[in-house]
Amino acid sequence: MNNSEEKQLLIAFETMINTADEALAEKLIAPDAIFYAPTQPEPLVGPKGYLAIVHMMRSAFSDVSWHMEDCVTEPGKIAVCWTCTGTHDGNFMGQAATGKKFKVRCMNFYQIKNSQFVSDTGCPDIFGILMQTGLLPV
C-alpha cells in the first residue's frame, strides 16, 4: 500500500469507529488483529474485540466521536492523532453519568497488512476524560 491508500483506509476506519459498522469492521480488521486498550488487562482480538471498545465508549458517551487530526504513514504502519469528544451520559469505569462533556487527544499506532488493520496500540487521554467529566477531582 502507498501513503494515499493507507490514508483512504484510515478514512474508512474513522467511519467504522464513529458508526460501529460491523460489516465495515469485518472488512477493515483482520480476524486475528490484536488491540491494546488501557481499560483492558488483556489485548482484544479481531473485529468483535475492536467493536467491544467502541461499544464500551458508546455506552458511557452516547455521542462519542473521533476525528482524525493528523497522521504519519510508512509502509505497513500508521500513527494517528485523534480528537475524541463526548458527553458522559452513561456508566464509565463504574462511575455514574455526570452529564459533562469532554474533548481530548488520542494517539494510536496501527500496523497494516494486506489492507487490514492487524494491531492497534492506543494511547487515549483517559486522565483528561476523567478530569473533564468530573470523575477525577482536580
From TrEMBL:
It comes from the Bacteria. This is SnoaL-like polyketide cyclase. One of its GO terms (biological process) is polyketide metabolic process. It comes from Selenomonas ruminantium.
